[in-house]
Amino acid sequence: MGKxxxxxxxxxxxxxxxxxxxxxxxxxxxxxxxxxxAALTRxxxxxxxxxxxxxxxxxxxxxxxxxxxxxxRDWQHELLLAQVARRRPDRLLASGRRLIIHSCxxxxxKTGPNPTDRARPGSKHHIATDANGIPVAAILTGAxxxxxxxxxxxxxxxxxxxxxxxxxxxxxxxxxxDRGYDSERHRQELRERGITPVLAKRGTAHGSGLGKYRxxxxxxxxxxxxxxxxxxxxxxxxxxxxxxxKLGCCLICWNTLRRAEPSF
Length: 264
Prior knowledge:
The protein contains 10 helices and 6 strands, in the order αααααββββαβαβααα. By secondary structure, the protein is an alpha/beta fold. The protein starts with 7 loop residues before the first helix and ends in a 6-residue tail after the last helix.
């Protein structure tokens, strides 16, 4: 038999984050609900393979596709990257002082005319990673959203990372980003927060040296492409696609903290 889609170690990390299921009625309790682990197994299967909800094989014994879709809808606010990464807070504390930000466009809500693809409606993934490429924040917007507008929201979306001692780490020491984030106003706001902005300026020649830092977040975007459900946006609802995005980041975070190179 192959390896389980959701291992015991991964389930032990995610189970405390999920909301408690509603208790059954004492009279007429109805059909027994599908377990959360079984639903998560099917959700991860859909994320990896890109299969439609209705085409999920019944042999998995994890309920219907509609049931799993509803669980993902209910769990979208519970997928916190920093809490999934609490297994190795020492490594995050060592590499979280430097934050790298980048966005990548993908093709309901949270869509917009793509300025680089003949105004076709699409979405954009905004990702913030630490120096090791571990995602610590993710935001979904329309493809016509300017990158710099999500700079501060990404910083605010970072959840506190608790270490062994001291106060939780919530803000980095420096932020690296490409020319799409060139803005003096945002530089000033980052300095007021005690963060050193290292943002490339428009009009400067390539090879400025920032590429040796920014490639890390681009590699994280490439890791996200391993999940076929994120290659092309099929969901009409933006919250469902964003939930898949955060779940993919959680799996990358988990695999990266467990081994040197993630495997999918």
